[in-house]
Amino acid sequence: MAKLGTIWHYATHPYQLRAMLHWKYLRDPLHFRNPDKESAELKKCYEFLELTSRSFASVILELQPEMRTPVALFYLVLRGLDTIEDDMTIPNDVKIPILQDFHKILETPGWTFDGNAPTEKDRQLLVEFDVVITEFAKLKDVYKDVIRDIAKRMGEGMAETCRGPAENLDGLPTIKDYDRYCFYVAGLVGEGLTRLFVPAGVANPGLLKRPQLYISMGLFLQKVNIIRDFREDLVDKRSFYPREIWGKYVEKYPDLGLPENEEVALECQSEMVLNALDHGDDCLYYLAGLKDQSVYNFCAIPQVMAIATLALVFRNPDMYQRNVKIPKGEACELMMDVGNLRTTCEIFKKYIKIIRSKNTPKDRNFLEVSVKCAKIEQFIEGIYPAKPKSVLPSGWTGALVFFVFMSFMLVNFAFLTAYVVGMKVNMSPDVWQTWQFFIMPNETTTTTTAAAPPLLTNTPGHGEL
Amino acid sequence: MSTVRPNETPISNALIIGGCGFLGTAITHALLAKHPSCKITAADIRSPSAKPSHPNITYATVDITDISSITALVAQTRPTVVFHTASPVHGLGREIYFKVNVDGTRNVVDACAAAGVKVLVYTSSAGVVYDGSALVNVDERLPFPAIPYDAYNESKAIGETTALDANGRDGMLTTALRPAGIFGPGDRQLVPGFITVVKNNQTRFQLGDNTNMFDFTYIDNLAVAHLLAASVLLHQHATTGATVDESVDQRRHMDGTAMFITNGQPVYFWDFAKAIWCHYGVYNAGSVVLPATLAYGVATLAEGVSWLLGREPGFTRFRVKFSCSHRYFDIRKAKELLGYEAEISLSEGLRRCIEVCSTNILPVNLCMKVG
């Protein structure tokens, strides 16, 4: 049945199908790797990149050469940290020191770790982590410092989380805690990337002076994932929704998934979406500061996926029951369309419209959601003012159309009456000429003036026709 | 002084002209809350029916169209800050608008400058830039329209210019605030207007596609903006004085310039309406969408018919235009120069407003019936 649904989807969304085929077969990537010039270790690192990341690998591989390796290694370092933090089979007395000292590990040639559970999907990365360390050592010092600093702070943040209970079905206590958690796992990534981009000259240095922007970049992605992964996290006995939000709607967190709570769960969901949407305009602002197309794509693609996902989950009860995802074709369409800031803004507007179409006054967050959508639209209007639609205000056009229509009806009606009554309409030449003025497009045209006299002579009333 | 931020400069003695009106009352309350030691004079054309008594408040009557009346009041109370909020309600004649907004403002300006008032804050209106077409994210760079939309807005624009031109006269600093879509408990126009639609059972109609954004201002936020403006100008008065250099971008300084004030939360027009109506149990509002162009034609017809029958038309072209076009502002100037942020959000403001409106206007049983 799922197959049938997919066929139906692409039958009704041919553009997405086209985008998918185009993306796969016809597109030229912006930049290529040249594996012949790479060391064996670096090749191995790229292999790991493709193994560990579904979505990020393709955009990282297309980054311009100067940025590609630092960003790829940054990703692998964070993935390594994540793999240790996620593994519940590692006891805390082993886990916490590793997390806290991860920045030192990056300076320890030959360090590997095989303490992960065999089921941990990225365990191989840590088993052969020495290749990452070898390549890390070859990076420019500016890049190394940034990656090390972020690894240190993220490791500390993760260690703190690990000290908490392993199973948590209460979510995070407050919205502040939620933001803090998202900062450690995602906001820091935004900071690190910006600090890599600026020295390389691919981003406006002003971005470093506005931490709120790069933090929002990370928080937006993370929050969208947290909202969408409700069911998946619940199965893993984890929860990240802040109690400050879900506590308004249900007594116990898992109750959000119960069918009888559907209405309140949807309201909780819209408040979560509202909270995430708050970062939307900051993300667009950040993107305006990027100077290189490959870097732009790298940053913008995840953002448009996030807004599309947000539109998909908004007031969607399915999200509480299963893992909802945007269709592959839609993802390809987004990757193809992301282009530049203007087209990205168009994409945002498109999904804002979808969110608005699902917004309902029944929801207690109705007005807040509407305000937030308008806020993003106002921001876009600020950078790309829309052209006025027409010279005449639409109302006047309407009145004009209406007036012209009524005049024609009146004239038709008059002639029709004359015809029915059989009345002879005798027009004086003067009147006829006035009438002619209306039907002749151009009085200077010689043919019309030539044709006028014979018409004038036998100007019968419609009664004789 | 250095520890006090400019927008927190204490106000010691304030005169509020129009002090018993909708905005004047809100300013009085805001002053009591934020500047507890301020001596307040609330002056209005008539003395209020119910005076909230407070040792800091004095009530006075004044007729600003009479120069001697306002001069006497200013001389007697010796305020450092004057808030000029008085303005006739809509629907009166051109003559009264000009008498109060133009002549009255000139009298206020003259009296204040002569008496050594430090700061004059004039309450203008966002309508001064309205020419009948859409206002899309406009800021203070937009000039007055060549042809004013109506006599009211024309008189407000002249009044604003009078107040702003007086900047620097005898050291007095002036500014003008242009609020848009004021609402709040006690408001007699905006929210009650929407509630009437519920009463008339017309909520199912939506004009236009609801993509047009609208700005509203909760009354208490506007009052706070007035206080911030006065404080910033008092600080400027004590430090640099009036900005005389004309080359300075008018978006960089407040004195002698106007600024838009809204909640900073533009919202889609019909969403705002629906948010009000859902308080009355109407959740399916806007199920019948009339395209703006069609609605405009129908309104023209309705106006024609009403004219023939000699009745007041209920459905007018103005209404169609009003509810189908953008009308929102860029208030970054106020945010940057005043440090202004709306303390009361749109939804919270609406909730407070409806609490009052429901008890005053709609009998409960009617709410039930509509729901």
Question: In words, what does this structure look like?
Answer:
The complex is a heterodimer of chains A (465) and B (371). In chain A, 67% of the residues lie in helices and 0% in strands. By secondary structure, chain A is mostly helical. In chain A, α12 (211-228) packs across α17 (293-313). Chain A is elongated, with a radius of gyration of 32 Å. Chain A starts with a helix and ends in an 8-residue tail after the last helix. By secondary structure, chain B is an alpha/beta fold. In chain B, 42% of the residues lie in helices and 15% in strands. Chain B has 12 helices and 15 strands. In chain B, the strands form 5 sheets. In chain B, strands 3-2-1-4-5-7-12 form a 7-stranded parallel beta sheet, sandwiched between helices. In chain B, β4, α3 and β5 form a beta-alpha-beta unit. The radius of gyration of chain B is 21 Å and the shape is globular. The interface between A and B is medium-sized, with 29 and 38 residues.
Largest interface: A-B, 29 and 38 residues
CATH topology of the domain at 10-184 and 215-265 and 330-343 in chain B: Rossmann fold
Query: What would you report as the Rg of chain B, rounded to the nearest angstrom?
Result: 21 Å
> pLDDT below 50 for ≥5 consecutive residues: which ranges of chain A?
443-465
| CATH architecture field of the domain at 10-184 and 215-265 and 330-343 in chain B | 3-Layer(aba) Sandwich
Question: Helix amount of chain A, in percent?
Answer: 55-70%
Query: Which range best describes the helical content of chain B: under 10%, 10-25%, 25-40%, 40-55%, 55-70% or over 70%?
Result: 40-55%
Q: Give me the strand/helix succession of chain A.
A: HHHHHHHHHHHHHHHHHHHHHHH
